[in-house]
Design goal:
The structure holds 2 protein chains of 2 kinds. By secondary structure, chain A is mostly helical. Helix content of chain A is 74%, strand content 0%.
């Protein structure tokens, strides 16, 4: 009898992983659709960096942000494009999910899912997939806007695009996991925006998104270096800004290994926090 | 497998929050295929009980088995066999009725046909509408549809028809009868006693966290409480008598008084009358128990 039970169990475990992944992919479609039907997230998360890039590019159209080795002017649009790409990664991951899940916790969505046979892993796959998909579309819109409207020259070598790919991917997943972890903090769905937006806003100001990072005092740069956004913005600058501007970075280096390390540490920390704190519902509230 | 297999077994279930006892030692079974109505005033412990059985809350003590499993430890396979219609829902509803049902159907191993479910709750014309644009009653019907789309063996309905107009309530009853005829076991809580009488096989009445009665619907309160009551005025005085033969009594009255009795009434107590009687008694004894506790505490 034991001989028949063991293989049956083994195959069931395998299929339950397959099932979790299949349902996770299904959730991505469901989540992305719901995302674009929520007017305020589309504006404050999806379009916000696009709006900011436009405002900065237009407002500072007369200003110069340096020159390339060939003597070309670095325009505001060129200078702020990588910053807004990094901001988009933070908003699509952290801000989006921290608010979204806090709201779902308080409006009964999670309670309903808790009573259904949806694996928690599938729910997370859906949320991460939503962040990745919407973040990628957002990056596409930013790049298209920068390239066509503001004539920002885009990198021509594959190496830069490979860097973009991993910085973007690692950045989105890091932000998204931290967003899930942060969703435990707001006490209600209504207070979620009030808790989350100040955090992302402060991070954007100290991490070189709206203000030139090299203009910040060193102590503030060091504070910002603790958090992932500074590294995402640095990674994006390494891709899109001319190499000469590396002199403006801390230690005059793009420090790609440092970026990978810091983002990976935050990603793992977020996973640990999430796995300890996430519950479908608070059982005895 | 016994013939009267129980889908729910509850023994001496208790739930306390600090000093407050929400559920104070209740016991009941639900047989397979049966519809069991859990009735009681607000705050009586109905929702706490149903949420313990759904796996949403932990119990303080006692035994609970739902489809043979401890609901506090029910895994995904177990969840796939139950259906839950929660008391309220306030989800953002940024998906259409059809999208929501297709999605939930995909979570279950043997779901019902989505179009049939949408038709069964009467939302064919709203299938393509975003849930947030529906009226309260229509959203409630989506909740019911989501609860049954997985073809559950056991369905929890927590005040399912709140906000329904009378017509919607009748068509909901029809839907539940279809589920009953397909063999679905149901645990129903409701404030509408006529709904419990229409749908329930047996009922348990909870007040103050305790089960004050547990019986087939038409025997709740005992046979005594269902005995018809004849009331009339005689010499300006109000008279009443319980009797199993009211027509005979009325005939006797007519011949004794030699005329039509004044303000004659023959009352057959409804479930609601019996219920109010039961719950009222319990409330009274509750109050005295509370007073007793206070005197004890004062010592």
């Amino acid at each position: 009898m034991t001989t028949t039970i063991s293989p049956a169990r083994a195959s069931r475990t395998e299929s339950s992983i397959g099932r979790a992944v299949r349902l996770g992919l299904l959730r991505i479609g469901y989540e992305v659709r719901a995302y674009f039907r929520q007017g305020d997230t589309v504006f404050f998360t999806f379009l916000f960096p696009v709006v900011m890039l436009t405002i900065f590019s237009v407002s500072f159209s007369e200003a110069s942000f340096g020159q390339t080795a060939d003597g070309d002017e670095i325009t505001a649009a060129w200078f702020f494009l990588p910053a807004m790409l990094a901001a988009g990664v933070l908003l699509s991951g952290l801000q989006n999910l921290a608010i979204d899940i806090a709201v779902e916790k308080s409006d009964g969505t999670l309670k309903r899912l808790a009573g259904s046979p949806l694996p928690v892993v599938s729910y997370f796959i859906g949320k991460l997939g939503q962040s990745f998909t919407t973040g990628l579309l957002q990056a596409g819109v930013l790049l298209l806007l920068g390239f066509t409207v503001f004539q920002v020259p885009l990198p021509e070598n594959a190496e830069n695009w490979v860097t973009f790919a991993w910085v973007f991917t690692l950045g989105v997943f890091c932000s998204a996991i931290l967003g899930i972890a942060l969703s435990a903090v707001p006490r209600s769905g209504k207070s979620a925006t009030a808790v989350v937006i100040p955090i992302t806003l402060v991070l954007q100001f100290i991490s070189g998104v709206y203000l030139r990072f090299s203009d910040l005092p060193e102590w503030l740069q060091n504070v910002a270096s603790v958090f992932p956004l500074k590294w995402m913005a640095q990674g994006m600058r390494s891709v899109f800004l001319p190499d000469e501007l590396v002199v403006l970075e801390q230690n005059e280096s793009w420090d790609l290994p440092g970026i990978a390390l810091v983002l990976a540490i935050w990603l793992v920390a977020g996973l640990v926090i999430t796995s300890v704190t996430f519950r479908w519902i608070r059982k005895d509230s | 497998m016994t013939i009267t297999e129980n889908v729910v077994e509850v023994r001496d279930l208790r739930k306390t929050y600090g000093d407050f006892t929400a559920v104070d030692g209740i016991s009941f079974d639900i047989h397979r295929g049966e519809t069991f109505a859990l009735l009681g005033p607000n705050g009586a412990g109905k929702s706490t009980t149903i949420e313990i059985l759904e796996g949403y809350r932990d119990r303080t003590s006692g035994e609970a088995r739902v489809l043979g499993t401890d609901p506090g430890r029910g895994g995904l396979d177990w969840k796939a066999r139950i259906g839950i219609v929660l008391q309220s829902s306030g989800e953002s509803g940024n998906v259409t009725v059809a999208e929501q049902l297709r999605h939930f159907a995909a979570l279950y191993p043997n779901p019902r046909d989505v179009d049939e479910v949408i038709a069964a709750v009467g939302l064919e014309e709203k299938a393509g509408s975003l849930i947030r644009k529906l009226s309260g009653g229509q959203r409630r019907r989506v909740d019911v549809a989501v609860g049954i789309v997985g073809a559950p063996e056991l369905l929890f309905l927590d005040e399912p028809t709140t906000g329904f107009d009378p017509e919607a309530r009748r068509s909901f009853w029809k839907l539940i009868r279809t589920l009953q005829s397909e063999g679905t076991s149901i645990l129903l809580t409701t404030h509408y006693l006529d709904e419990a009488a229409q749908l329930g096989d047996r009922a348990g009445i909870i007040a103050g966290g305790r089960m004050v009665d547990l019986a087939p619907i038409d025997e709740i309160g005992g046979r005594e409480s269902r005995v018809p009551l004849v009331r009339w005025l005689e010499n300006g005085e109000r008279r009443e008598q319980r009797t199993t033969t009211p027509a005979t009594l009325v005939t006797e009255l007519v011949s004794r008084l030699g005329a039509e009795p004044d303000s004659l009434e023959v009352i057959r107590p409804s479930l609601e009358d019996v219920y109010l009687d039961l719950v009222g008694h319990e409330h009274a004894s509750d109050l005295s128990a509370e007073a007793l506790n206070e005197t004890e505490a004062a010592r």
